[in-house]
Amino acid sequence: MSTISTALRNFKEPTKDELTEIFFSIPSAASTPPAPKDEVTNKTEEVERMEINAVMSMGVHGEEDSYAGKLYLIAPYLTFASLDRKSVRLTLPLSTIRRVERLNARAGIYALSLALWHGSKIIVQLTSLRPTADLFCSLLRDALKIELQKGQMKKVKPFVKTCYSETLVTESATVADQEHEDGSLIAEEKDSGPRESTFHGGLGLRFKFPGDPRKLREASKIKLWTQYLKTHGRNLTLLRYPQCTRLVQVGLPNRLRGEMWETLSGSIFLRFSNPGYYEQLLKDNEGRTSASTEDIEKDLHRSLPEYAGYQSEDGISALRRVLQAYAFKNPELGYCQAMNILAAAILIYMSEEQAFWLLEVLCDRLLPGYYAPSMHGTLLDQRVFESLVQRCLPMIHDHFQAVDVQLSVASLPWFLSLFINSMPMIFAFRIVDCFFCMGPKVLFQVGTAILKINGEKLLQVQDDGHFLHLMRDYFASLGESAHPDSNDPRARAITRFQELLLVSFREFAVVTEEMIQGERRRFRSEIIHSIESFAKRSAVRNLRTLERFTKDQAGLVYDSLYRAMCVFPPPPATLPPPSLLTTDDQAGADKPETRIGLKTFQYFLSEVATWARDEKIVSNGFQQRVDRSVAEHEFIDRLFFFWDVSCRGALSFQDLISGLDGVMFNGLMENIEWFFNLHDKNKDGFLTKDEVLTLSETFLFIFRYEIGDAYLGAVSRFMSNAFEYGDALLPQPEEGDDSPAPLPANQPYLNLATFRMVVLADEILESFFETDLTASFRLDPLPESFDAAATLGPSSSSSSGILGDLWSTIATDSNKKMFNMFTDEIGKAVGKHQVVHKPSIGRYTTLEEPKARESLLTPGMRHSVSRGSLRSIDEKDGVRLTPERTTPGISPGRVSPRPVTPTQEKKRERVVSDGDSMPLIQKAAAALLERPQFEIDHVESEDEGDDAFGVGEDEDEGVDENVMDEVDAFLEAHDSGLTEADKEVAKGLIDAKPMK
Amino acid sequence: MAESSAADKSVQVKLVLLGEAAVGKSSVVLRFVSNDFQPNKEPTIGAAFLTQKCRLEDRVLRYEIWDTAGQERFHSLAPMYYRNAQAAVVVYDITKASSLEKAKSWVKELQRQANPNIVIALAGNKLDLVSAAASSSSASGDVSEDEADDATATPGEAPAAGESDSLRQVPREEAQAYATEAGLLFFETSAKTGEGIVDLFTEIAKKIPIEHILASTRGGAGRPGAGSSRANAPRADVNLDDSTKPKEACNC
């Protein structure tokens, strides 16, 4: 039982646009469920993205400085970030913009005033060239119009009512006063009744928030925030100035925490744009169970069990609903232990709906791949963390290496549960505050800071256990003074936790989001490779039987299966309703086995059997390649159902192993029988007349493209013989008259013995069953690089010749196609383009000597061939085979080098185009063609193609790039700081009147 | 080595618990470490780490127990915990046949990937659910209640009185036969009643090549700082060990 996932192969590095979206916490298209309505209009009304240099200031005297940065229009959002990307940040749904005015200012200054929903006003000075600014304005106008048409503006009012900040700000006068008197929240509890109905809140409102409000200085925090939110906007319109980050770092007040989390993480935009989605999702899936819901049940009672809310049914059922809703929304991820901890934690501070969307942002964007079935994100970030420690704290890293202690034993739960499971909650939540505000890098910063602070003790650690104890003790002491022996009372007052944050954000400020992205990129393939080889090992280990395969061979079958799954992914194994799985044998219910459908099977077979693929040898003068595509024939479908012993319409890895076993290891007689049974549909030991015809067609299919007509002759002899013997034997079964339906076509006609006789009467068929059939199955290991090249297109191809090695480095399939088309064009131009079908079983393949029939091997040699094809890992292959019948036919498609005998060498030069003997210059020219994506993409017209292999064009391209870079750099340098005069201008704009 | 043998005659043994989710791994450990059966306060993320001493003749074994998360997707993390382990307890649930299949696959993996000398024990847990006949008076009512408290227990699997025997899905003989064939120690246990738990860990202790470990630790203790850390590490557990020793110390 094993599940095989190719999900990791589908990973794509985020594009620049996506990175911008991530930076501004804008919901990605994937995480937003498609709106059922106005789907048609959506497509036509997309406004293109644009960014522009700008200086932003608040439209109030004395409030904050102006900042230079970039303004982005990413409909339906308008965003701004200061040049340092951290001081000032704003993500604004367009629907919260009430009014945009062009300001009447000094000549040469292009400024807009934006009036926002919450009454605040921001002024942006577009500092780019006039036409650019004009374009930006018109795009903004279009985008706003669309939002208005969609009625988004009307949704703002009811939505902001669900935010606690509104209550806080509008009633701030009374609330703040009461808090001031009591110094706690008790005063608030009294009148919380009527308000609760309007704004969303968490379990904390009923079951109290963790920690002592007095110690946490809730009252003064609330006051500071009230002030900030009043002037800088809130929830949907929050403008983040440095003060905001500072306030977050001292800890969010409990009552505001939930809303600030969703505002800072951007999950508020998801909730805003998908009203009612959560309730609907729960309703649609009511009563549904799955493996995920079962797992969730097991963990409900061990999710922060010490918190009062989770000792009550209300808390538990809220937790259940949120986790289930997420599992229903994202069945592929489903539920992973540790998500329960996160969900339980955030539910203390937010409503179910808020928590649901925050969980979405967490799993999708902030902790990508952490909770996926392979947990690749977790493994990757552990590796990244380790490398960070190596870089920042080399002594600790070296010591851990020396005593063989793995960092992950402690750090894995830190990352997986955002420290909530490791630290006292009040401290963990403060880290979570920073995490939502400043991004995932916080986890790495805090992690390294923990190690640094405990550095000396860690250098004494000798084993995993000791390390864990040390960490546990440290976390338990976070509330204590960091400097208990200091004379300075202020120093004594600093807790260890404060020290931790200080070290995290000061000393490890060097750890940036970009750095982590870079490190992830560095280690991703390593991690994916280790996950995949782990999966492969367990899949092979978990086979019920290896049959006659060795483990390595089974591994090769797995590889072929895996490649096939990359190209034609089978339907997800988690999706079928549980009812389908319970009919399964016991283990099936928990671990649905990966099974492939017919389409994937066809591809798989084309990987392992030579006749199951169509191969065209294309030579175009300086490159010879084999274009491979999947052959389709009734026979392949027949094989699929023949191997589907449990009749599920899908094959498992085990089925494939068992199926291949039935054909790859047998001798002449068994193969004949196998072939007979394959065509004996009703398994009565007789073929009907129709089946004999089908069988003959199968022969023809397998022998297609064979050179010469020897095979055609053999098949026609077979048919005439079969019918002759069949007819001769016919009267006998009819005399018995057992058959109830004596329809001629369905009548038992040819039994195994007769079939065998007919086959053995023909030399070619005999040799086919003795060696060729078996030999047509090949388990060849592909070179690593080829394997890593990930998804191959449906008609993948491989190449030999001088470009063979370069081939695998051309990344994507589309690139390869481009490349092929390009070279074909050249070939045609030069008159060297040639396409030859490769024979499917590769018996007689020397293209120039089709009459090779007489060179049949002696029986002894044939025997060694069939065994040898299984031993394909070793390189004896090429040597063992006689020169006459081998060379390109074996597999010219393989890139792997194999020892070649001198005769073969000669042959190859002749047969496989000019291959190796290509002149050096041509090689160099060809090598130049092997370049990254964009150049190839630009090779469009033939004229350019002829132009000295596009070298000149390449240079132009490069120059353009450089110029753009320079321009960018220049602009940035120009905008990086604001002079006093600039600031004056910005201030002047506050009072500027709108233009007519 | 004088100071190290004085500080502890105990031999450190790394033991890892593996098995399908909700078979009661954490409960088995809890029973062994603190002779308790309780709702699990500490959710298992990755793995929980506990220690317990076990006396064996003149030696004291100090078990370092890694209680791993059972959910399938944590599987790929397991090698991190079972590497260098000297012992493993693979737990299955005798009332759930599929859990034995999973256990078998764990055993296969351990035999191929883990330390070649690893001592593997197979433990069929939740014996209390099927041996109600033995203590019929307190039988099923209590069981269901307690099991419901146990966070790792599968809800809804609590037996109704009288039906308890039919709950068994894995015959003892079948598991025993498999264990013998695969060369494993075999026990049926109940974390709830404590039955078989101490035996399980004692038998593992007996089978562990202690001299071998001692030799290798001695080699390792030559490193600077090793002595002091060995002295430090057990100190943290003194309280725990003292409180549980009267009940728990293996009686052999």
- According to CATH, the fold-level topology of chain B is Rossmann fold
The protein's oligomeric status is heterodimer
Mean pLDDT of chain B: 74
Number of helices of chain A: 50
Taking the sheet with the most strands of chain A, its summary is: 9 strands, antiparallel
CATH topology of the domain at 376-527 in chain A: Cyclin A, domain 1
> How many DSSP helices of chain B?
11
Radius of gyration of chain B: 18 Å
SSE ordering of chain B: HEHEEHEHEHHHEHHHH
Helix-residue proportion of chain A: 40-55%
Which CATH architecture of chain B would you pick? 3-Layer(aba) Sandwich
The CATH class assignment of chain B is: Alpha Beta
The portion of residues forming beta strands of chain B comes to 15-25%
* Unreliable segments of 5+ consecutive residues of chain B: 1-7, 134-163, 220-252
Summarize the amount of helix of chain B as a percent range: 40-55%
Class by SSE composition of chain A? alpha+beta
Q: What's the story with the biggest beta sheet of chain B?
A: 6 strands, mixed
Strand order within the widest sheet of chain B?
2-3-1-4-5-6
Notes on the structure:
The complex is a heterodimer of chains A (996) and B (252). By secondary structure, chain A is an alpha+beta fold. Among the domains of chain A are: 31-157 and 979-990, PH-domain like (Roll), CATH 2.30.29.30; 266-366, putative rabgap domain of human tbc1 domain family member 14 like domains (Helicase, Ruva Protein, domain 3); 376-527, Orthogonal Bundle (Cyclin A, domain 1), CATH 1.10.472.80; 666-778, EF-hand (Recoverin, domain 1). Chain A has 50 helices and 17 strands. Chain A has a 9-stranded antiparallel β-sheet with strand order 8-4-3-2-1-7-6-5-17. Chain A has a 4-stranded antiparallel β-sheet with strand order 15-11-10-16. A two-stranded antiparallel sheet of chain A has the order 9-12. Chain A is elongated and about 105 Å long. Chain B has a 6-stranded mixed β-sheet, sandwiched between helices. Chain B starts with a helix and ends with a helix. Chain B is of the alpha/beta class and 252 residues long. Chain B has a single domain (2-248), classed as 3-Layer(aba) Sandwich (Rossmann fold). Chains A and B meet through helix 15, helix 21, helix 25 and helix 28 of A and strand 2, helix 3, helix 4 and helix 10 of B.
